[in-house]
């Protein structure tokens, strides 16, 4: 059981038959909190509620408290309990978690004679310190290990003749940060190695589908958590990539950068407007660039069920480094939520001119442009991704199916098409089963530099995961 490290004891009294007390319960069986020294009711105004915690390091809330103990009018006997207290007058409890995930990934690719079979298991342990006057710290350790024989190329170049599976073996610290959160939770500042996920992770994300997540050595600030207006700022000095620190390409392993990320979001009813500015300078000068973008997403004004997304971004060279010509990005999406299912359709366009293309090197890459990982780097001919999909819930199972049609921007040909299926459910309490399949059917390679997008491939994932928070 968690232990309260600091309590400000307040007493409450109960009037029952045979008990002498000046306190009386009203018709709703409620009574004010009383000051045990003066006997006067406490002024509860200004006592801030607890702010919501991050999903990654969740601090237990008061929801599990016995409400009968909190109100003497409902208890069998008088209790001594603390009332709600402001965040800056309280020491919050620390947390701990254990995350275990096993995955079998099978890949058949026309470009390889052998079939890849990657059987890996990942263990992640971590938690946060108690929060004192708004300050706390968090740390997470992870290890990914192989089960069985290595029958896949993990991108390090040690095993050839097999298709690539982007889950290299690794052991180390995945996160380590210190943080301050203001009393009302409106202001948050964090420094250290951390996970950063902005909006739909198209530009900055942790790519959490992979066994080794992408984390950032960064200083971040957020103003307006849960408010109609929110401002995010981050300065990133290094991106720790999902390919692991042992990848022979330095940029693919640890991308050293001087990246400034600024994002402003404002809510207008059921719709949100976002304005963002990314100044990304990498030691690999080819990847340096500047983004300026605008997006709108939310509920369509004339509908109760239709949602939309409309986004435009402009990318240009940064101080003479990066693309020679300016590039653009557009994304249009329409979706509808029904009773127990949801459909969506969209078009994502990353421009290219046969020499350069719009790039998003710090994104959650597996999430976008199909699950076959064919377009982790945008081809120089650009990419147009027309997609459609449906999600549904049937009993304990959740399902998703999606189709992508990939076309060139600088040309009239097609890269190929992809069909994906996903299913998952909770089993045995804390354990979750996930099944996923992606089939890519390549097109005509005549217009490409090489045949990276011409072959067919099929990927199958079978995963079991469990997370424990004592």
From TrEMBL:
Keyword vocabulary terms for this entry: Signal
InterPro entries: Porin_dom_sf
Region (Disordered), start-end ranges: 27-71
Feature: compositional bias, Basic and acidic residues: 48-69
Signal peptide: 1-20
Coiled-coil region list: none
Name of the protein described by the UniProt record: Beta-barrel porin 2
Organism this protein belongs to: Natronospira bacteriovora
């Amino acid at each position: 059981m968690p232990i309260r490290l600091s309590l400000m004891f307040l007493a409450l009294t109960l009037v029952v038959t045979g008990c002498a007390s000046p306190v009386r319960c009203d018709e709703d069986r409620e009574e004010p909190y009383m000051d045990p020294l003066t006997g006067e009711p406490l002024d509860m105004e200004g006592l801030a509620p607890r702010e919501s915690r991050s999903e990654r390091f969740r601090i237990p809330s008061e929801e599990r408290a016995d409400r009968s103990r909190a109100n003497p009018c409902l208890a069998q006997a008088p209790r001594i309990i603390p009332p709600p207290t402001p965040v800056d007058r309280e020491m919050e409890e620390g947390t701990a978690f254990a995350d275990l995930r096993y995955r079998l990934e099978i890949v058949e690719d026309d470009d390889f004679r052998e079939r890849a079979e990657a059987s890996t298991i990942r263990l992640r342990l971590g938690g946060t310190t108690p929060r004192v006057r708004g300050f706390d710290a968090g740390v997470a350790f992870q290890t990914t290990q192989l089960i069985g024989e290595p029958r896949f190329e993990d991108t390090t170049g040690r095993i050839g003749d097999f298709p690539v599976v982007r889950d290299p073996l690794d052991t180390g610290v995945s996160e380590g940060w210190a943080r301050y959160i203001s009393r009302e939770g409106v202001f948050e500042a964090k420094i250290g190695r951390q996970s950063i996920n902005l909006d739909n992770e198209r530009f900055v994300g942790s790519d959490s589908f992979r066994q080794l997540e992408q984390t950032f050595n960064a200083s971040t600030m957020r103003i307006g958590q849960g408010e109609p207006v929110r401002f995010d700022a981050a300065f990133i000095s290094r991106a720790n990539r999902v390919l692991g620190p042992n990848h022979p390409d330095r940029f693919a392993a640890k991308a050293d950068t001087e990246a400034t990320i600024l994002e402003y979001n404002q809510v207008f009813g059921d719709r949100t407007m976002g304005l963002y500015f990314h100044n990304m300078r990498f030691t690999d000068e080819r990847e340096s660039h500047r983004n300026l973008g605008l997006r709108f997403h939310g509920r369509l004004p004339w509908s109760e069920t239709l949602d939309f997304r409309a986004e435009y971004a402009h990318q240009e060279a940064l101080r003479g480094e990066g693309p020679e010509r300016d590039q653009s990005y557009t994304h249009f999406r329409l979706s509808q939520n029904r009773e127990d299912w949801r459909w969506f359709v969209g078009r994502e366009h990353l421009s290219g001119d046969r020499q350069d293309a719009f790039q998003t090197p710090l994104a959650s890459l597996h999430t976008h442009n199909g699950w076959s990982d064919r377009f982790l780097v945008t081809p120089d001919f650009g990419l147009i991704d027309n997609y459609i999909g449906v999600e549904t819930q049937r009993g304990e199972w959740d399902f998703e199916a999606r189709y992508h049609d990939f076309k060139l921007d600088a040309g009239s040909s097609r890269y190929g098409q992809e069909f994906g299926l996903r299913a998952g459910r909770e089993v045995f309490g804390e354990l979750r089963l996930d099944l996923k399949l992606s089939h890519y059917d390549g097109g005509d390679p005549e217009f490409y530099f090489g045949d990276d997008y011409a072959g067919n491939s099929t990927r199958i994932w079978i995963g079991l995961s469990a997370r424990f928070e004592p």
